[in-house]
Amino acid sequence: MKKACCARKLVAAAALLAASSAMAQTSTADMIKARQKIFGLENVNAMTGALKKDLVIFSWLGHNTGAVSMYGRIFMIDTYIARLEVTPGRTPLVIKDVVDMKPEAAFIGHGHGDHADNAAFIAAKAGTKLYMSPEACGTAQTALTRMKNDPFMQADPWFAIPQSTTIDCTGMTTAGSVPATEVVRVRQFDPLVCVLSYRAMHSVSVPTDPVWGPRPVVDTADPNDARWFPPGVQLTPQNPRRAGQQDIRQGAGPGGTDQINYMFVARTGYNFVLQANVSIGALKEGVGSNWPQGTPADGQRLMDLAGKQLPNTDLLFTTLSSGNTDNNGWRDLVMWTEAIRPKVLTTGHVTVGAAMQYYSGVLDQLAFMEQPRTGWTGFPRADWPQIRNHTDPTDILKPEVYNPGDPAWFNPQKAAKIAQYCS
User: Fold this and answer.
1) CA–CA–CA angle 202, 206, 211 (5° rounding)
2) pLDDT at 361 > cutoff 70
3) Beta bridge partners of 291
4) 3-state class of 85 per DSSP?
5) CA–CA separation, 165 vs 157, rounded Å?
C-alpha cells in the first residue's frame, strides 16, 4: 500500500510538472514569431520581440477582435477568433499564436461567446489580465474551472491547465448599473496609456423608425466564399471528437449582454485616442437587450458621454452587425458615429462572406441620413470618418499603424477632457 501511495504521488507530481511546463513553454523565439505574425515583421524587434514604442499598431484578428500595441504595451480587444481551427486555414492564426503573443491585458465587450471565448484560457496560459463586466468575470471563472477539469484538455501537454492556476478578472462598472453613469479608469498602462471604460447598451431589435421607414437588411453572403476559403478542422470539439480539438469557450452564464465600451488615450504627442465598442443599442429609443426598460434619455446620455464628455476619438473600432438591422438597417451605427465623430472608423462583426454587402450598406445608410429630418440634425459628408473596412479572411493580420505624434490627431478640446479623466 505504501509503494502504491508513493507511486500515485509520483504520477501526480509528474502530471503537475508537465502541466506547469506547458504553462511556461512560450519561449522568446515563439513570442517573437507570434508578434511578427500578428503585428508585422517591420514593427517587431527581431532580437527581443519588443514593439515600436512610438506607435499605435492595430491588427484585426477577425470578427470584433483586435490586437493592439500602444507604446509597446500589448493588449487585446475581445478574444474570440472566428472559425478558430486546429491548424491555420481560413483563419491564418491559431490559439497558440495569441498565447505566444503574450498580451498583457484583454478588454472584453460583453460575455457572449463571439466576444469572450478563449479569454479565460488565454489568461490562464499567458498571464493576461482580463477586464469585462463583473457579471461576465464570474462566467469566465466558471469556464476556467470547467477547463481545469476537462480530461481531454488535461491530457494534452500544451493545453493542460494546472489545478492551482488562477486568472485575474476585474469587473468594469458596478454590476447591473445604469449605462453611461460610471466611468471606470484602468491604470495598468499608466502613465503612457489612460484606459477608460463605461457601461453601454447591447444591440436590440425595435419597431421600424417612422422617420426613416423600413430598412431591412437581408444577409447575402458571397456564394464563392466557401469555395475560395474552405474550412479546416475547427478547434471546438465536434461529435465525434477529432484530433487536436479542445473546448476553450466562455460558455453560458451571466454577463452575456452586459456591454462595456473602452477608450485608450495615448499620453504623448497629440493624444491619439482609440475607442472600441462591439455592440450598439437602439440609441434613439434608449434601449438595449441588457437595458430593455430604457428611455430616449438613456440613449442621449450614452451618446453625450462618448462623444462630448470623454476625450475625442480618433480611431473607432466598431461593429457593423446589429440586432436592429432587420427593421432599421444601420441607423444605430450612423447615430453612434455621428455622436462620436471619429477621424477613422475600422470595422468588425460582419456575417461571414458579407463584408462588402455590409460596407456598401453602411455607406448607403450614411448617405440616407446625411440630410436633416424630424428630430435628426443630419450628418454632413464632410464630417464622415475615413472607413477602413475589414473582410474576413483577407484583412486578418494586416496591421494599421498610427503615429500619436501626427498633427492629424490634434483637437483643441482634448486637453481639458484628458485632464478631467486621466490626470
Assistant:
1) 120
2) yes
3) 288
4) strand
5) 15
Q: What is the dihedral of CA 12, 14, 16, 20, to 10 degrees?
A: 180
Q: Three cell numbers at 139?
A: 462566467
CA dist 197 and 173 (Å) reads: 8
The x, y and z cell numbers of residue 385, run together, are 470618418
> Which residues sit opposite 319 in a β-bridge?
348
* Nearest Cα to Cα of residue 280 among 211, 221, 340: 340
CA 399, CA 77: separation in Å to the nearest integer? 14
Of residues 235, 233, 165, the one with CA closest to residue 22: 165
Question: What confidence tens digit (pLDDT) does each residue in 225-265 have?
Answer: 989 999 999 999 999 999 999 999 999 999 999 999 999 99
CA distance 45 to 60: 20
Sign of CA dihedral 415, 416, 421, 422: positive
In tens, the pLDDT along 165-216 reads 999 999 999 999 999 999 999 999 999 999 999 999 999 999 999 999 999 9
CATH of the domain at 107: 3.60.15.10
The answer to whether the beta carbons of residues 78 and 262 sit under 8 Å apart is no
- Claim: this prediction has a pTM higher than 0.85: yes
Cis peptide before 88 (omega within 30 of 0): no
Which residues have CB under 8 Å from 265's CB, separation 6+?
Answer: 193, 194, 195, 196, 271, 272, 273, 311, 418, 421, 422
Name the DSSP class of 409.
G
- Domain enclosing residue 56, as ranges: 2-422
Are the C-beta atoms of 255 and 111 separated by less than 8 Å? yes
At residue 349, φ and ψ (nearest 5 deg) are 60, 65
Assign 25 a pLDDT band (cuts: 50, 70, 90): low
Cα–Cα separations (whole angstroms), residue 263 to 11, 118, 181, 214, 313? 48, 22, 15, 33, 8
Name the domain count of the chain.
1
